[in-house]
Amino acid sequence: MNKENCKDIVKTTILSSIPYVGSFFNSIYENIKSNELNKRYKEWSDLIEYRLSKLEIQMEDLSKNESFVTTIMQATNSAIKTTKNQEKKNYLIKNLI
Prior knowledge:
This protein has 97 residues and is mainly α. The protein contains 5 helices and no strands. The chain is elongated, with a radius of gyration of 18 Å.
């Protein structure tokens, strides 16, 4: 379990312990978090798809490349954790592809 997971568990536990409204606030928090993560993931995947479409590389070849798969997973984690910093996302994608 990493530090971020621990923070989420603590937040969820604290919100849930508030009488009457705790579960309501917890639901709102989880919904906002989920929507934001989905939005960030979609933006990142669109950027990767665009960049890969410019290359003459078959996706099958990339999926067999263990280094590429590991790198893209790590870059994706960093990109999703990045708020609206487009410069960082551009740096990640340029070093990835």
